[in-house]
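Sharing a chain and its predicted structure for anyone who wants a worked example. Both blocks are below, sequence first, tokens second.
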Amino acid sequence: MNLFSKWSLDTLGIGASLVCAIHCVLLPLVITALPLLGLEVLENENLEYALLVLSFLAGCTALWRGYLKHHHRALPLLLFAVGYAGLLAGHFLMPEGWEPFVIAAGAGLIVWAHLRNIKACRSCKICSSENAAECENAGV
């Protein structure tokens, strides 16, 4: 399997979503200590935007590829869309008190979408034992 295989993209998507959620949930808790520690990198909006873009790109690529080439199930795509909408709403629309909860819920849905995608790709009929070589070449 190459670096951009199905598993790697789902893993990257899960990781990006979790890092984004952890960053956004923990930031309000540690923000008072940041000046004492001299850390300003966690307050960087560019980091937040980069995590959002990385999560979106990895998710779209992995989930769309799984849908088109393997399992043809829409549930992972739907979970991802709702989860990503939650991330965006948490970042840009929610009042400060709701932000961490909405972002955590959105990230959770994105992780669930990737896990469903992995499971669906592993159990798809296209990837039966007689087609194992074809699926190995496709990166499943």
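Comments welcome. Residues 45-71 form the longest helix (27 residues).
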